[in-house]
Every structure is written in structure tokens, then in C-alpha cells.
Amino acid sequence: MQLSRDQLLRAYRQMVVIRMFEERLHAEIMTGEIAGFTHLYCGQEAAAVGVCEHLGHDDFIVSTHRGHGHCIAKGCDVKGMMKEIYGRADGLCKGKAGSMHIADVSVGMLGANGIVGAGAPQAVGAALAAKLDGKGKVAIGFSGDGACNQGTTFEAMNMAVVTKAPCIFVFENNHYSEHTGFEYAVGTNRDIASRAEAFGMKVWRANGSDFFDTYETMADLLAYVRAGNGPAAIELDTERFYGHFEGDPQRYRGPGEVERLRKDRDCLVAFRQKVEASGVLEIAALDAIDAEVAILIDEAVAEARAAPAPALSEVTTDVYVSY
Asked: What is the pLDDT of residue 1?
């Protein structure tokens, strides 16, 4: 699929925003100013952007505990996200969601959550709403390889097939379910996509560390689902560069594993090499994006630090929905 210059620059910018946002959080968490667990998305940027660049605000996504990349790729305000993670009153969720529960319904981001496999049923519900709406919209449930072992995910996939919901199950296989290796946890088959296929849906596979492979594969998948053929699934083979959570000692990693992954499977490096080799983008334009995004992230942190905390009078608001 041929992408325009503007599309390529936007995709690269989205990936860089995610990378710099997460790398900066890695440093800021060490200051003790950010409360709660944080799970960084570094290394998986091509997966989120390759999927979400096809989506409009009216399409839905549901995320995971490792959700910052999905939020940014779907269009959530970066400064509002940073304020949310800092627990500030003018964060996207008024400082009450923190890192693991960010949501912005206005851009179709229905929320991250800390329960493995919990997003799949929500995505099916959103997909059914989209089907009833009849406008060709879809809902995407992101999950990791760990969620493929959850009963909620199996039930959601079955429900999606039964109802022909326009739901897409995106499995980002970064090879670790928390601290347990994929090769052990998924069993002898080691093929997540085939699990979805067993429920009767069509499946795709792509290199989640390659933006172009992910983007082109998702184009085919989305055309199939938007045409009314029911749900589908995709397994994206990718890597995470940090631990399961910030502070994870990563003793389950092999010697030199992270260094090797950063050298051989960095999606940003791969993107730059491909566009430079093809001559479609000049490196100076990519460097300019890097510089621009660095300023954006500096501003986001400075504004988050200066922003007010929620008032005590707000502690009981936004806890339950009143119908």
C-alpha cells in the first residue's frame, strides 16, 4: 500500500511521541513524583500506530495496563495524558485514572485497565453498538499474549462470532506474560492466532516491529471487517524494551537480551532505514520531528508538574455512573 509523504511523516511522529513519552516517564518515575504502577510500551510503537492510523474518532479501541501507546496512537492529548499520570485535576480523567485507566471517549479510546483480558468483552460490546449504528465502524480490543489464556477472551471471541460483531482482537505478542515466557505459557502450539481461528473467525499475522507490515496487514483485515464479515483477529509479533512494570528487575530475561532487541528489533530504526533506502523521506525531516517531539514532551512534563491536584471535595465524584 502506497502511503503519501504526509502519512509517513504522521506515522513516524506518532511512534516518536510514544517512544519519547515513555522514555521520559521511565526517568520521571525515578523522582517519586508519580504514584502507582506504570507499564511502559517502548518497543511496540509500530503495533499501535500501524493499527490506529486506519481508524477514525468514531471507531473504538479498548486497551490494557500497557496502554499509553494505544492512547497516543488513537489521538489522546499528550499533555492531558501526562497530567493524568501525574494525578492532576486537569488530566484526561481528572487525575483519578492514573497510568493504567486512562480513557478519552471523545476520540474513541474507551479505556485502559489493569485486568488481563478484561478489554475483550468491552470491545465486543462496543462492536455490537457499532453494528447497530450501521455506519461501518469497528471496535478493537488490544491485548498481550497473556490475555490469550484468559477465559474472558475466549468468551468474547465466541460472542463476537455468534453475533457477527465488527470486533477485531489485536494480540500484541511481546513474548512475556508479566514475567512468564510465551514459549512456556501458551503451550506446544505457540500460535495465538490459531486460537482465534478455532472460534470460526478469520485471522492475520504480521511483524509488529515493522510499521509497514502491520499497517498493510491491518488494511486488509479492516476492509474485511468493515464489509460486514464479522470479527477477525491479528497476532503481532513484537518486543517490549522495559520490564513488565517500572521497577521490574527482569531476572527472567536472558543475558544481553534487551540490548539485542534494541539493536535488531527497534521499529523506529527500521522505519528510518526503510524510508531512507527508498528515498521517500529525507532523514533531515525525521530529525526535525524528533526535535519537535522532544519539546512537546518537555512541555508536557513541566505543565503536569505545575498543574493542581484534584480537590478533596472531588473524591466521591466520577466513582459510579448515574443512569
From this structure: 60
For the purposes of burial, counting CB atoms within 10 Å of the CB of 197, is it exposed (0-12), middle (13-18) or buried (19 or more)?
Answer: middle
Mean of the pLDDT values across residues 21-29? 97
Domains of the chain, by residue range, sit at 5-303
Distance CA 276, CA 267 (A): 14
Instruction: Look at residues 254, 64, 73 and name the one whose alpha carbon lies nearest to residue 172.
Output: 64
Distance, in Å, from the CA atom of 185 to the CA atom of 66, rounded to the nearest integer, reads 19
Strands 176-177 and 202-207: unpaired
d(CA 206, CA 157): 20
Smallest Cα–Cα separation from 168: which of 244, 246, 111, 231?
A: 231
* Start-to-end Cα distance in the chain: 45
- Give the tens place of pLDDT for each residue, 248-303: 899 999 999 999 999 999 999 999 999 999 999 999 999 999 999 999 999 999 99
- List the one residue out of 164, 174, 165 whose CA is nearest residue 142: 174
Which residue in the block uniquely carries the three cell numbers 523506529?
A: 268
pLDDT over 80 (residue 196): yes
pLDDT digits (tens, 9 = 90+) for 233-246: 999 999 999 999 99
In this structure, CATH architecture of domain 5-303? 3-Layer(aba) Sandwich (3.40)
pTM over 0.85, yes/no? yes
CA dihedral 5, 267, 105, 114 (to 10 degrees): 180
